[in-house]
Amino acid sequence: MTRRLKLAVLISGRGSNLQALIDACALPDFPAVIDLVVSNEPQAAGLDRAREAGLDTAVINHRTFSSRAAFEQALDARLLDSGPDLICLAGFMRILGADFVRRWERRIINIHPSLLPALKGLDTHARALEAGLREHGCTVHYVTAELDDGPAILQAKVPVLPDDTVESLAARVLAEEHRIYPEAVRQLAEAAAVSRTTCQ
Ligand code: GRF
Is the whole model's pTM more than 0.90, yes or no? Predict the structure, then answer.
Protein backbone atom coordinates (compact mmCIF):
# COMPACT_ATOMS: atom_id res chain seq x y z
CA MET A 1 0.00 0.00 0.00
CA THR A 2 1.13 3.59 -0.63
CA ARG A 3 2.04 5.87 2.27
CA ARG A 4 -0.85 6.31 4.67
CA LEU A 5 -2.24 9.78 5.18
CA LYS A 6 -1.37 11.08 8.65
CA LEU A 7 -4.37 12.46 10.53
CA ALA A 8 -4.83 14.71 13.54
CA VAL A 9 -8.35 14.57 14.98
CA LEU A 10 -9.74 17.49 16.99
CA ILE A 11 -12.57 16.79 19.41
CA SER A 12 -14.51 18.41 22.25
CA GLY A 13 -16.87 15.69 23.49
CA ARG A 14 -18.30 12.22 23.01
CA GLY A 15 -16.00 11.29 20.15
CA SER A 16 -18.20 8.85 18.26
CA ASN A 17 -16.91 10.17 14.92
CA LEU A 18 -13.38 9.84 16.28
CA GLN A 19 -14.26 6.21 17.07
CA ALA A 20 -15.45 5.67 13.51
CA LEU A 21 -12.09 6.98 12.28
CA ILE A 22 -10.18 4.84 14.81
CA ASP A 23 -12.08 1.75 13.64
CA ALA A 24 -11.47 2.56 9.97
CA CYS A 25 -7.75 3.16 10.55
CA ALA A 26 -7.54 -0.26 12.22
CA LEU A 27 -8.51 -1.92 8.93
CA PRO A 28 -5.42 -3.24 7.15
CA ASP A 29 -6.24 -1.61 3.81
CA PHE A 30 -7.33 1.81 5.12
CA PRO A 31 -5.06 4.49 3.64
CA ALA A 32 -4.80 6.73 6.72
CA VAL A 33 -3.52 6.59 10.27
CA ILE A 34 -4.32 8.78 13.30
CA ASP A 35 -1.18 10.34 14.72
CA LEU A 36 -2.70 12.68 17.30
CA VAL A 37 -6.01 13.45 19.01
CA VAL A 38 -6.42 16.94 20.48
CA SER A 39 -9.26 18.01 22.75
CA ASN A 40 -9.96 21.50 24.03
CA GLU A 41 -12.06 19.89 26.79
CA PRO A 42 -10.07 18.04 29.45
CA GLN A 43 -13.04 15.79 30.31
CA ALA A 44 -14.03 14.87 26.75
CA ALA A 45 -15.14 11.23 26.60
CA GLY A 46 -13.42 10.99 23.23
CA LEU A 47 -10.05 11.25 24.99
CA ASP A 48 -10.74 7.88 26.65
CA ARG A 49 -11.52 6.35 23.28
CA ALA A 50 -8.21 7.70 21.93
CA ARG A 51 -6.22 6.44 24.93
CA GLU A 52 -7.88 3.05 24.69
CA ALA A 53 -6.75 2.87 21.07
CA GLY A 54 -3.20 3.74 22.18
CA LEU A 55 -3.16 7.08 20.38
CA ASP A 56 -1.20 10.17 21.37
CA THR A 57 -3.50 12.73 22.97
CA ALA A 58 -3.15 16.38 23.89
CA VAL A 59 -5.45 18.63 25.88
CA ILE A 60 -5.32 22.27 24.93
CA ASN A 61 -7.90 23.87 27.17
CA HIS A 62 -9.06 27.12 25.57
CA ARG A 63 -10.04 28.48 29.02
CA THR A 64 -6.41 28.65 30.07
CA PHE A 65 -5.49 31.12 27.30
CA SER A 66 -6.03 34.86 27.40
CA SER A 67 -7.26 35.07 23.80
CA ARG A 68 -8.40 32.96 20.89
CA ALA A 69 -5.17 33.84 19.08
CA ALA A 70 -3.08 32.47 21.97
CA PHE A 71 -5.16 29.27 22.07
CA GLU A 72 -4.80 28.81 18.34
CA GLN A 73 -1.06 29.43 18.52
CA ALA A 74 -0.72 26.59 21.04
CA LEU A 75 -2.94 24.36 18.92
CA ASP A 76 -0.92 25.21 15.83
CA ALA A 77 2.36 24.43 17.59
CA ARG A 78 1.11 21.03 18.77
CA LEU A 79 -0.19 20.21 15.31
CA LEU A 80 3.08 21.26 13.66
CA ASP A 81 4.86 18.95 16.03
CA SER A 82 2.82 16.04 14.68
CA GLY A 83 2.84 17.25 11.07
CA PRO A 84 -0.50 15.88 9.89
CA ASP A 85 -1.46 15.66 6.23
CA LEU A 86 -5.06 16.25 7.25
CA ILE A 87 -6.83 17.68 10.31
CA CYS A 88 -10.24 16.14 10.97
CA LEU A 89 -12.61 18.15 13.15
CA ALA A 90 -14.91 15.66 14.85
CA GLY A 91 -17.31 17.47 17.13
CA PHE A 92 -14.71 20.18 17.82
CA MET A 93 -16.75 22.99 19.33
CA ARG A 94 -14.40 25.98 18.89
CA ILE A 95 -14.63 28.28 15.92
CA LEU A 96 -11.22 28.54 14.31
CA GLY A 97 -10.01 31.97 13.22
CA ALA A 98 -9.22 32.97 9.65
CA ASP A 99 -5.43 33.01 10.18
CA PHE A 100 -5.41 29.50 11.59
CA VAL A 101 -7.65 28.17 8.85
CA ARG A 102 -5.58 29.83 6.14
CA ARG A 103 -2.38 28.24 7.47
CA TRP A 104 -3.98 24.80 7.13
CA GLU A 105 -6.00 25.57 4.02
CA ARG A 106 -7.36 22.46 2.22
CA ARG A 107 -5.89 20.38 5.03
CA ILE A 108 -8.80 20.77 7.52
CA ILE A 109 -12.10 18.99 7.13
CA ASN A 110 -15.21 18.81 9.30
CA ILE A 111 -18.34 16.73 9.64
CA HIS A 112 -21.57 18.68 10.04
CA PRO A 113 -25.00 17.19 10.82
CA SER A 114 -26.97 18.72 7.96
CA LEU A 115 -27.10 18.77 4.19
CA LEU A 116 -25.01 21.92 3.80
CA PRO A 117 -25.54 24.64 2.75
CA ALA A 118 -28.85 24.04 4.60
CA LEU A 119 -28.82 24.39 8.40
CA LYS A 120 -25.40 25.79 9.19
CA GLY A 121 -24.64 26.18 12.90
CA LEU A 122 -26.08 24.35 15.91
CA ASP A 123 -29.27 22.37 16.72
CA THR A 124 -29.63 21.13 13.17
CA HIS A 125 -31.96 18.22 13.98
CA ALA A 126 -34.46 20.37 15.90
CA ARG A 127 -34.35 22.94 13.11
CA ALA A 128 -34.91 20.28 10.45
CA LEU A 129 -38.02 19.09 12.32
CA GLU A 130 -39.29 22.64 12.91
CA ALA A 131 -38.90 23.47 9.23
CA GLY A 132 -40.84 20.34 8.27
CA LEU A 133 -38.02 19.06 6.07
CA ARG A 134 -38.60 15.69 4.43
CA GLU A 135 -34.91 15.05 4.01
CA HIS A 136 -31.93 15.68 6.27
CA GLY A 137 -28.39 14.33 6.55
CA CYS A 138 -24.75 15.15 7.03
CA THR A 139 -21.84 16.66 5.13
CA VAL A 140 -18.08 16.25 5.23
CA HIS A 141 -16.61 19.53 4.00
CA TYR A 142 -13.41 21.54 3.85
CA VAL A 143 -13.12 24.11 6.61
CA THR A 144 -12.88 27.74 5.56
CA ALA A 145 -12.97 30.93 7.59
CA GLU A 146 -16.77 31.08 7.22
CA LEU A 147 -18.67 28.75 9.58
CA ASP A 148 -19.85 25.49 7.93
CA ASP A 149 -19.25 27.02 4.53
CA GLY A 150 -16.37 25.20 2.81
CA PRO A 151 -16.71 23.00 -0.27
CA ALA A 152 -18.49 19.70 0.35
CA ILE A 153 -16.54 16.46 -0.03
CA LEU A 154 -19.27 13.92 0.69
CA GLN A 155 -22.90 14.02 1.81
CA ALA A 156 -25.39 11.41 3.00
CA LYS A 157 -29.15 11.90 3.04
CA VAL A 158 -31.67 10.37 5.43
CA PRO A 159 -35.46 10.65 5.38
CA VAL A 160 -37.26 12.62 8.09
CA LEU A 161 -40.07 10.33 9.28
CA PRO A 162 -43.47 11.60 10.49
CA ASP A 163 -42.96 10.43 14.09
CA ASP A 164 -39.32 11.52 14.37
CA THR A 165 -38.03 13.18 17.52
CA VAL A 166 -34.78 15.12 17.72
CA GLU A 167 -33.21 11.98 19.21
CA SER A 168 -34.43 9.52 16.58
CA LEU A 169 -33.44 11.84 13.75
CA ALA A 170 -30.04 12.55 15.31
CA ALA A 171 -29.38 8.81 15.63
CA ARG A 172 -30.26 8.19 11.97
CA VAL A 173 -27.96 11.00 10.86
CA LEU A 174 -25.15 9.93 13.21
CA ALA A 175 -25.08 6.43 11.72
CA GLU A 176 -24.46 8.07 8.34
CA GLU A 177 -21.80 10.36 9.80
CA HIS A 178 -19.90 7.30 10.99
CA ARG A 179 -20.07 5.87 7.49
CA ILE A 180 -19.15 8.92 5.40
CA TYR A 181 -16.39 10.45 7.56
CA PRO A 182 -14.02 7.51 7.09
CA GLU A 183 -15.15 7.24 3.47
CA ALA A 184 -14.26 10.91 2.83
CA VAL A 185 -10.84 10.40 4.43
CA ARG A 186 -10.32 7.35 2.22
CA GLN A 187 -11.19 9.33 -0.90
CA LEU A 188 -8.86 12.20 0.04
CA ALA A 189 -6.05 9.76 0.86
CA GLU A 190 -6.48 8.00 -2.47
CA ALA A 191 -6.55 11.33 -4.33
CA ALA A 192 -3.38 12.44 -2.51
CA ALA A 193 -1.68 9.16 -3.44
CA VAL A 194 -2.59 9.69 -7.10
CA SER A 195 -1.28 13.25 -7.08
CA ARG A 196 2.00 12.09 -5.46
CA THR A 197 2.43 9.51 -8.23
CA THR A 198 1.73 11.94 -11.03
CA CYS A 199 3.98 14.67 -9.58
CA GLN A 200 7.08 12.46 -9.26
C1 GRF B 1 -21.61 15.21 15.37
O2 GRF B 1 -22.99 15.21 15.15
C3 GRF B 1 -20.93 16.06 14.35
O4 GRF B 1 -21.57 16.08 13.11
C5 GRF B 1 -21.00 17.44 14.96
O6 GRF B 1 -20.84 17.23 16.33
C7 GRF B 1 -21.25 15.91 16.67
C8 GRF B 1 -20.08 15.26 17.34
O9 GRF B 1 -20.38 13.98 17.83
N10 GRF B 1 -20.02 18.32 14.38
P11 GRF B 1 -19.22 13.03 18.28
O12 GRF B 1 -18.41 13.75 19.34
O13 GRF B 1 -18.39 12.68 17.08
O14 GRF B 1 -19.91 11.81 18.85
Answer: yes
